[in-house]
Every structure is written in structure tokens, then in C-alpha cells.
Design brief:
This is Vacuolar protein sorting-associated protein 35. By secondary structure, the chain is mostly helical. Among the domains are: about 120 residues; about 140 residues; about 130 residues. It contains 39 helices and no strands. Helix 6 packs parallel to helix 8. The longest helix is centred in the first third of the chain and has 31 residues. About 0% of the residues have low confidence.
Length: about 800
């Protein structure tokens, strides 16, 4: 059926064009022979083709343009009185004898254009006559195109300021009156179109009306081009008359389009000065009109106008633009009770954008907009509409983008209240946006109160929200979120130690509510923040009793002990052990021996009871040895206890090579190359001898199990340790001891049971080369190495 209708239209259009072309042929002949009577006859026949009511606006436009081209040619003929010999006044009367009303009016408008140009009659009289007579055509499509033709031919003949048609009683008001009258009549025709067909064709009629809207809007464009319309005339006459027509037409399509036209075609300065009048019409429009788009465009234009020049800001304050827009939005939302929540939020996003661009210094305005949004959202538990959610994210992101400073956003009391209305997933997205803003702008949050507000904003990342648990999350996303929180903790800083301690306590309070799974991500950065504070307070001490005691290292270490202890429930013993060792090192720097000893005790307890994996044990024991080696606070008894434990655990590792390496590492615990370091050469040598025995046992075990004893790498590593202590002046390690070890390695390498290994061979060769290099040196080092015979 649809395809048949299109085919019929094409056929009717083709017939109409054929009729125009046929009559145009005779019209041209009449014009060429200067025959007025014949020209009028064929012009009327040609224009009769426009009387059809079978075509859609799109097809009718094609037909109209064919006729329009011919009318332009006819107008040129009418202008030249020498060719047709008829005065323009008589011609104006003559064309009114055409048989049909539509051709008669097209001809009358064409002659009227010539009549105004001749100045034989006042322009306002001719224009008034034409606009009144066009009322005779009440068919919507035919009437709209006729009046569009009238607007087209008259736009350069209006009695405007500076126009050649001004004067002799013709004023700007006459031009305004003509355009407004033509606009009013066209709008009535356009609105009436919706009642022209059966209900089942409503969509088709809407489509056709949309195609014709520019014909009506063109009048407003013509009005905006009239030079004589100043602010006073616009405010007192033009805008009220246009708005009256828009409100009274009670048509959704017309009201939306024409409001949009007003905003687009008239100057921003006029909008600012007539804001109250323009906004006053909005609540009177039909409830279904898309006012959110109209008002958003108005606010965008005003924002651009404000940012074009700083001098304009007093004008915005003078007319109270913000309060007028805010009140208007409130009234529109009340009037349009069925407006979806996404529309409401979109309006507030536009108002907030306007506020941030025009009044960036007025945080009370920003908070007021957010507060208004909270009121509208208060009846809704959680947003489920994805478009509405997206708009809330835009609302919350706007202050962050504008101020580049989360601290500003933290002062807005309604900011977290808006976030509460987001669903769990979007809450987390917004939390990530906040963290990224802080990291990008390197913003430090410097008080515990602000940290409290910040962590309330990002609570979606630091604890499970209703309806979502960590078990349901994608592992990769969860890691990314928690790493972001960890990065954020390094941006919480205050130079005042007491305030910094409050910040650390506030963060600790929040992350304890985050569940076990998050602790392994959030505890380490918090521990390191506290350790930074400890380093700043190094050398201070004090009684830790009471709540209001200033921050001291002891007090912080007590808190650190609690924080790290929380990792035992995760469980994450390896991480806890590393953190205990970091704290022990900090306690050493603060010269707090009992505290350092306690942290080492905790590390050893974890090692004994929790670290079961053999690889993890190897890593842990090396960390313990390395940290213990740097400690200089311990007395003889405490140090002996700890080194004894470390060497004991080293010898108990599962694999012989691991035992060997851990035991020779323990040798550094007995010889520390610092002025006041431990220098127990005998015990260092004992460790090296013990590691040699373990290496030998490893070789024999390999020989029994594989039939070959494996590479000599362990022996070469031990040789390098001997060389280190030899150079550092350990009296127990002599050239002859090193020489004996070199001989042992050579013997092992030549043994049939030893597996050839290029890496260990190269390692041994490099070591020998180093010994030769040292022997050739002048001075004490050369002499020392001279005792080694290779």
C-alpha cells in the first residue's frame, strides 16, 4: 500500500511538472513578444498546478520551486513598463481578475513586489493588503507555501531603518507588524495540519509537519534581521507577541520548534535582558514539550556569551540570571509532572554547567544546584535508568573538571548526597573518576575531615555496597580499583604530624570496613604513609597514654602493629612479614630497640607458623637476614638471639642449595662493614665453612640420585663471599684459605662425576680473572692478594 501511494505521488508530481512546463513554454513566448494579456493567462494556468492537494510537502516543494522560477522571470517583465505598457497601479488591479484564488494571489504578490519597489504607494499599505488577502487560502500546505512566497519577495522591501522604503509614515513598527501577522497566520495553518487526516495517519502528518517547519521559522529569522528592532522594541512588542502565539497554539511540535527558533535567531544580549519574559512562558507550554533541550540550549548560549568577555559578568549578576533560571527549571519540573527523571537531571546538568562557566567562584550556587537535584531524587531509592545514571555522572564530574581540585568538591555538602542515588556499579565508576582527577591534578587532601568526606564518596571501592560483593567482581577490575585506592593514599598528606596521624587513623577506620579481600591492597600504602610520618618524627619520644597526646613514633608503631596484624585474617603472611621488617628498620632509625625487637619477633612468628611454601620461605629468610644486617640498635643479647634464629632457619630450608645460600648470607650478620658495625670474623668464617659443608653434601646427594654431582656454582659463590670478607679485612680469612678453596673447585671441575656447565665455568673463570686483576694492583690490596698462589 505504501509503495502504491509513493508511485501515485510520483505520477501526480510528474503531471504537475508537465503542466507547468507546458504553460511555461507559452508564457515565455508571450513574454518574448511583450504580450501582457497572454502572459497573465499562461501564468495563471501555470500557477493552477499549485492548487493540488494530492502531494506531500516534500513533493509539493519540488512543484513550487518550478513555479517560483517562472514567477521570478515574470517579475522582471512586470518591472519594465515599456515592454507591457501598463502602469503598475493598473497592473495591481488587473491581476486580481484571475479566475482562481491561488494563482490570483501568487500574481498579486509578484506585482505587489514591483508596486512597492516603484514607491507609487507606501510599502506598509501594499504589505498589509497582501498579508490580509492571503487569508483567502486556508488549505495548510497551499497557504504555507503562498505565505512563504510572500515572505520571500518582501524581505528586502520592508520599511526598516536605513531602508529605501522607510519614511512618509512607513516605520519599523510597520515592518514588524507585517512579519508578525504573516508569522501568526502561517503558524495557525501549520498547527491546523495535525487535524487534516484520520488518526491512523497521525505519524505521517507529524512527518509532513516537520518538513514544513522551516517555512514558519523563516519569519522569526526575518524579524531578527530587521535593523530597527532594538532591545526595547524586542522586549515590549516582538517577544511578547511571538510568545503569545506560541503559548496559545497549544501544539507540542510548534511550541518546541518555535521556542528553539527564538533562542537560536535572536541575540544573546536580548535573551539575557528578557530572561524573565522568556522563562515565564515555559511552564505555560504543553506538558509534553521537550523543554529540557530548549532550556539547555538557552543556558549554553548564555554561557558562551558570558565567556566571550569578562566585562559581561556584572550584567548576569544584575539581572540575577542564575536565580531566574533556577526558579524557571523548578516551575517547569512542577508543571511537567510526567517528565522522566533523566529529563530532570539533564536540566540540572545544564544549570550546573552554566553556573560553573558564569559564576565559577560561587560554590553556594553549585551546591544549590546539587541540592535541588537531591530533592528530586529523594523519592527514588536507586537510579536504574542508564541514561539518567549517565547524566548524574555528568553532574558529579562537572565540578571536578572545572576546579581541577577535589578539595573544592569536598566542600560541597550535597555532593555525596547525589552520589548516594547511584547504583553500586555507577558509584564505583564515579569513585574512579574522583581518584583519577586527584591523581591527574596531583591534589593533596590535607585534613582528616576532608579525608572522611572523600572516603564517603569513594565508599563503593573501599567496601561492599548493597547488592554487590567482592566475590561477584571481575578479578582484573577489582585489582585495578584497589590499586587506584592504594595510589590515592599517597595523596593524603599534611605537614602537621598530629593532623597526619588523624588522617592515617581515619583511613584505617574506613579500610577495616572493606573486608579481608581488600586489605592486601590497602594496608601496604597505609603502612608506608605511617612510616613516612615516623621518619619525620625521628628522635622524638613521649608518653603515649591518653587521647590528645601529640603524634610520637611509639604511638604510630602501636597503630602499625594493629594494622599489619589485620593481614593475618586475609591471610597474607608473606606481605605481613615484609611490612613487619620495614617497621623494624624504621624503629631502628628511631633508636627504639624494644619496638624493633617486637617487630622482628612478629616476623619470626609468622615465618614459623604461617610461611609454608618452600620458595616463600627462601625469600622470607633472605629478607630477614638483609634487614637484620642493617640493624645497629640491638644490644648483644637481643642481636645474638635474632642472628641465632636466622642462621637456624637458614640451615633448615628444604633444598640444599637454598640452605647453602641462606647460610653464607648469614655470614654478613657477623661482619658489618661500617665503622661501628659488628666485626666477629670467627663466626662469619663458621657460616662460610658451614655453607661449604652443605654445598659438598648437595654435590654428594646429586651424585647419588642422578649419577652426576652437578655444577660447581655453589662453590664459586662461596669463593666470592670469601673474597669479599678477605678484602674487608676479616683476619680469619687468609690467602691460603682462599687458595685451598680454589684448588677444591678445580678438583671438583676435573672430576668425572661433575656435570659440565658453561655458566658456572664462566663464573669461576671471571672470579679467577678478578683475583689476577687484584694481584697486579699496587698498594695494600695488591700485597694482600699477593699471598694467593694460583
Amino acid at each position: 500500500m505504501i509503495s502504491n501511494g509513493i508511485e501515485d505521488e510520483d505520477k501526480w508530481l510528474a503531471e504537475g511538472i508537465a503542466g507547468i512546463q507546458h504553460n511555461a513554454f507559452y508564457l515565455h513566448r508571450a513574454l518574448d513578444s511583450d504580450n501582457l494579456r497572454e502572459a497573465l493567462k499562461y501564468a495563471a494556468l501555470l500557477l493552477s498546478e499549485l492548487r493540488t492537494s494530492k502531494l506531500s510537502p516534500h513533493k509539493y516543494y519540488e512543484l513550487y520551486m518550478r513555479a517560483f522560477d517562472e514567477l521570478r522571470r515574470l517579475e522582471v517583465f512586470f518591472k519594465d513598463e515599456d515592454r507591457h505598457g501598463c502602469p503598475v497601479v493598473d497592473l495591481y488591479e488587473l491581476v486580481q481578475h484571475a479566475g482562481n484564488i491561488l494563482p490570483r494571489l501568487y500574481l498579486l504578490c509578484t506585482v505587489g513586489s514591483v508596486y512597492i519597489k516603484s514607491k507609487e504607494a507606501p510599502a506598509k499599505d501594499v504589505l498589509k493588503d497582501l498579508v490580509e488577502m492571503c487569508r483567502s487560502v486556508q488549505h495548510p500546505i497551499r497557504g504555507l507555501f503562498l505565505r512563504s512566497y510572500l515572505a520571500q519577495i518582501s524581505r528586502d522591501k520592508l520599511p526598516d531603518i536605513g531602508s529605501e522604503y522607510e519614511g512618509d509614515g512607513d516605520t519599523v513598527m510597520d515592518a514588524v507588524e507585517f512579519v508578525l501577522q504573516n508569522f501568526t497566520e502561517m503558524n495557525k495553518l501549520w498547527v491546523r495540519m495535525q487535524h487534516q487526516g484520520p488518526l491512523r495517519e497521525k505519524d505521517k502528518l507529524e512527518k509532513e509537519r516537520n518538513e514544513l517547519r522551516d517555512l514558519v521559522g523563516k519569519n522569526l529569522h526575518v524579524l531578527s534581521q530587521i535593523e530597527g528592532i532594538d532591545l526595547e522594541l524586542y522586549r515590549d512588542t516582538v517577544l511578547p507577541r511571538v510568545l503569545e502565539q506560541i503559548v496559545n497554539c497549544k501544539d507540542e511540535l510548534a511550541q518546541y520548534y518555535l521556542m528553539d527558533c527564538i533562542i537560536q535567531v535572536f541575540p544573546d544580549e536580548y535573551h539575557l535582558q528578557t530572561l524573565e519574559i522568556l522563562l515565564g512562558a515555559c511552564p505555560q507550554l504543553q506538558p509534553t514539550v521537550d523543554l529540557k533541550t530548549v532550556l539547555s540550549q538557552l543556558m549554553e548560549r548564555l554561557s558562551n556569551y558570558a565567556s566571550s568577555s569578562p566585562e559581561l559578568l556584572p550584567e548576569f549578576l544584575q539581572v540575577e540570571a542564575f536565580s531566574k533560571l533556577s526558579n524557571a527549571i523548578g516551575k517547569v519540573i512542577e508543571a511537567q509532572v510526567d517528565m522522566p527523571i533523566v529529563g530532570v537531571i539533564t536540566l540540572y546538568v545544564s544549570l550546573l554547567t552554566f553556573t560553573l562557566r558564569v559564576h565559577p567562584d560561587r560554590l553556594d550556587y553549585v551546591d544549590q544546584v546539587l541540592g535541588s537535584c537531591v530533592k528530586k531524587l529523594s523519592g527514588i531509592p536507586k537510579l536504574e535508568d542508564s541514561k539518567a545514571t549517565k547524566q548524574v555522572v555528568a553532574l558529579l564530574s562537572a565540578p571536578l573538571d572545572k576546579y581541577d581540585d577535589i578539595v573544592t568538591a569536598l566542600t560541597l555538602s550535597n555532593y555525596p548526597r547525589v552520589m548516594d542515588h547511584l547504583d553500586a556499579g555507577t558509584n564505583k565508576i564515579m569513585a574512579m573518576v574522583i581518584i583519577k582527577s586527584i591523581m591527574k591534578n596531583k591534589t593533596f587532601v590535607s585534613t582528616s575531615d576532608k579525608v572522611e568526606v572523600l572516603f564517603e564518596l569513594i565508599k563503593g571501592l573501599i567496601k561492599d555496597l548493597e547488592g554487590i560483593s567482592t566475590d561477584e567482581l571481575d578479578e582484573e577490575d577489582f585489582h585495578e580499583e584497589q590499586n587506584s585506592v592504594a595510589c590515592l593514599m599517597h595523596m593524603l598528606y599534611n605537614d602537621d604530624p598530629d593532623e597526619m596521624l588523624k588522617i592515617i587513623c581515619t583511613v584505617w577506620k574506613h579500610i577495616t570496613a572493606g573486608g579481608q579481600k581488600r586489605l592486601s591492597f590497602t594496608v601496604p600504602p597505609l603502612v608506608f604513609s605511617a612510616l613516612k610520618l615516623v621518619r619525620r618524627l625521628q628522635g622524638q619520644d613521649g608518653d603515649v597514654a591518653g587521647e590528645e597526646v601529640p603524634a610520637t613514633p611509639k604511638k604510630i608503631f602501636q597503630l602499625l602493629n594493629q594494622i599489619i596484624e589485620s593481614l593475618t585474617v586475609v591471610p597474607s603472611p608473606e606481605l605481613a612479614l615484609r611490612l613487619y621488617l620495614q617497621c623494624a628498620e624504621a624503629a631502628n632509625d628511631c633508636e627504639l630497640e624494644p619496638v624493633a625487637y617486637e617487630f622482628f619477633t612478629q616476623a619470626f612468628v609468622l615465618y614459623e607458623e604461617e610461611v609454608a611454601d618452600s620458595k616463600a620461605q627462601v625469600t622470607a629468610i633472605h629478607l630477614i637476614i638483609g634487614t637484620l644486617q642493617r640493624m645497629n640498635i640491638f644490644g648483644v643479647e637481643n642481636r645474638d638471639t635474632l642472628t641465632h634464629k636466622a642462621t637456624g632457619y637458614s640451615a633448615k630450608l628444604l633444598k640444599k642449595p637454598d640452605q647453602c645460600r641462606a647460610v653464607y648470607a648469614c655470614s654478613h650478620l657477623f661482619w658489618v662493614d661500617e665503622p661501628d658495625g659488628v666485626k666477629d670474623g670467627e663466626r662469619a668464617l663458621l657460616c662460610l665453612k658451614r655453607s661449604l659443608r652443605i654445598a659438598n653434601a648437595a654435590q654428594q646427594m646429586a651424585n647419588v640420585t642422578r649419577g652426576s654431582s652437578g655444577p660447581v656454582t655453589l662453590f664459586v659463590e662461596i669463593l666470592n663471599k670469601y673474597l669479599y670478607f678477605f678484602e674487608k679485612g676479616n683476619p680469619q680469612i687468609t690467602g691460603s684459605v682462599i687458595q685451598g678453596l680454589v684448588e677444591l673447585i678445580k678438583t671438583e671441575m676435573q672430576s668425572d662425576s661433575t656435570t659440565a656447565n658453561h655458566a658456572s665455568d664462566a663464573f669461576f673463570t671471571s672470579t679467577l680473572r678478578y683475583i689476577h686483576f687484584q694481584k697486579q694492583k699496587d698498594g695494600p690490596m695488591g700485597e694482600k692478594y699477593g699471598s694467593i698462589k694460583l
